[in-house]
């Protein structure tokens, strides 16, 4: 079974960073891991209704706002504890910088894309997942996030993405109170059941007849029905030149999730 020894956390100035910091710190304590909190955001953009002749200094104001955002994030980091490392993306776009650092981590902790926030690209999570190839624990941007991994739902199909997500989740499963696994109706389950048992994991099996367009919503509904606090699934998609294409289930879960999701591409 793999282990979690290095966690890379994305941090910004939002209040939800405090939730991600707590989750990452709990992972560190449980798995004896080192957490690096990386501040990676776009430079601030502010409205500029005045002309330069009015004495308005937009560059200076944006620099000051960037400093305020960094200080706010640093304060959240300091409040979370002294046993984590701090890193910053100084001269690179946030996705590029974070992907580069992610190559040296066992697990990433990210925040769900927030349609209101503009500190990172709107496709930050999927860009990092596809760009780095590393598993990520994605934390919802709203709602309560308590203990993670007591009741786990695994979305399984025989694919590299699902297999990598399950492998990444293995260190979290031995302490779970209940593990559920859902497959498409008609999909043989003997091999995955044997695999889990070899890891001393007894799972309750479910099947779904959902069409591809409905799969994400069905997964989230089942997670709610069983009281899951963690969903494990593959992230399906690919990156084209200046375009990111996600599968329907991945897109639906990333948009509608209300519980933490462990994903891997």
What would your notes on this structure say?
This protein has helices spanning 16-31, 58-80, 94-102, 124-132, 160-169, 190-198, 215-226, 248-256, and strands spanning 6-11, 34-39, 85-88, 107-111, 136-139, 151-155, 178-184, 203-208, 230-234, 237-240, 243-246, 261-264. It has 265 residues and is an alpha/beta fold. It folds into two domains: 6-139, HUPs (Rossmann fold); 151-264, Rossmann fold. The strands form two sheets. A ten-stranded mixed sheet has the order 3-2-1-4-5-12-9-6-7-8, sandwiched between helices. A two-stranded antiparallel sheet has the order 10-11. α6 (190-198) links the parallel β7 (178-184) and β8. The protein is globular, with a radius of gyration of 20 Å. The mean pLDDT is 90.
Write the layout of secondary structure elements.
Layout lengths: L5 E6 L4 H16 L2 E6 L18 H23 L4 E4 L5 H9 L4 E5 L12 H9 L3 E4 L11 E5 L4 H10 L8 E7 L5 H9 L4 E6 L6 H12 L3 E5 L2 E4 L2 E4 L1 H9 L4 E4 L1
Helix pairs in contact: 1-2, 3-4, 7-8
Keywords:
Rossmann fold, alpha/beta, two-stranded antiparallel sheet, 265 residues, globular
| Tally of DSSP helical segments | 8
Q: How would the global form be characterised?
A: globular
Helix content: 25-40%
Text of the CATH class of the largest domain? Alpha Beta
What is the H/E order? EHEHEHEHEEHEHEHEEEHE
How much of the sequence lies in strands comes to: 15-25%
The residue ranges in which pLDDT falls below 50 over 5 or more consecutive positions are none
The fourth-level CATH homologous superfamily of the largest domain is HUPs
Query: Which class do the helix and strand fractions yield?
Result: alpha/beta
The CATH architecture of the largest domain? 3-Layer(aba) Sandwich
C-alpha Rg, in Å? 20 Å
- In whole angstroms, the N-to-C terminal distance is 19 Å
CATH fold category name of the largest domain: Rossmann fold
**Total domain units:** 2
Q: What is the number of strand segments?
A: 12
Major sheet attributes:
10 strands, mixed
Strand order of the largest sheet: 3-2-1-4-5-12-9-6-7-8
User: What is the average per-residue confidence, as pLDDT, rounded to a whole number?
Assistant: 90
